């Protein structure tokens, strides 16, 4: 049982980034439903929240995360810490684990 009500109540620390994978297509263009086990796992996600950044130990300055809430990102095919909030599944990555920011 989760004590979190929604994803906005979760604030990542340091250089952590909370993302939600994009949902794969559940049916084909012709209308045939794809079973859940046959749906491909997409490596694209939307950033839900990002931490303030990590502190540089030599200068003491905070290095901000390179993404912000609402950005579309490219994720590695493995990794991330799963976080379940209600029925939704989210993933926590460090900023350096995210492969790319998708510009539209």
UniProtKB/TrEMBL annotation:
One GO CC annotation: mitochondrial matrix
GO terms of biological process kind: chaperone-mediated protein complex assembly; protein import into mitochondrial intermembrane space; protein refolding
A Pfam match: Cpn10
Residues forming coiled coils: none
Keyword terms of this UniProt record: Chaperone
MF (Gene Ontology): ATP binding; metal ion binding; protein folding chaperone; protein-folding chaperone binding; unfolded protein binding
Keyword set includes Chaperone: yes
Family of the protein in this entry: Belongs to the GroES chaperonin family.
Function: Eukaryotic CPN10 homolog which is essential for mitochondrial protein biogenesis, together with CPN60. Binds to CPN60 in the presence of Mg-ATP and suppresses the ATPase activity of the latter.
Name of the protein in question: 10 kDa heat shock protein, mitochondrial
Organism listed in the record: Scheffersomyces stipitis (strain ATCC 58785 / CBS 6054 / NBRC 10063 / NRRL Y-11545) (Yeast)
